[in-house]
Amino acid sequence: MPRAEIENISRINESWAMDFVSDQLFNGKRFRALTLVDIYSRECLAIYPAQSIKAQEVVSNLEMVTRSREFPDSIRVDNGLEFISKALDFWAYQNGVTLQFSRPGKPTDNAFIESFNGSFRKKFLHAHWFLSLDDAERKIGEMTIMSTDHIVLWDTKLLLNSLNKKRFPAVS
User: Model's pTM, two decimal places?
Assistant: First the structure.
């Protein structure tokens, strides 16, 4: 099968990417986080941690994000159960959003979110110890608060700079 052509994304909200990243609490209990990014701006639009995330929670998070932003033309996702659900399909249909599914076993079809998740895992999840799911939610929430209510995490230098500025303000 020939490789899928890469689209030329030219504006904000043209295409988003969505996936899950997993981590664990101090006691070994696993949790997942839904991650959502705008491919053009590389903005992280949402990170939603929970023990398990159902399709309706994916839809609820999309509804929350689209209260303050335009709907995207498309969202790139893999073939996980939450993304092939009737709930997400109906939401996308109602809002004129095209779901672009990656080919099974081809995570590079959604390389944008895979890159983001790798940076998020390496620079944030591996750097923190979570005592509870509430603690993970709080720390992730604190990390994502910026003047625009969004954070650009794709650039790992920017992520480190933003985290260091919050923890270690410049001394004048």
Answer: 0.80
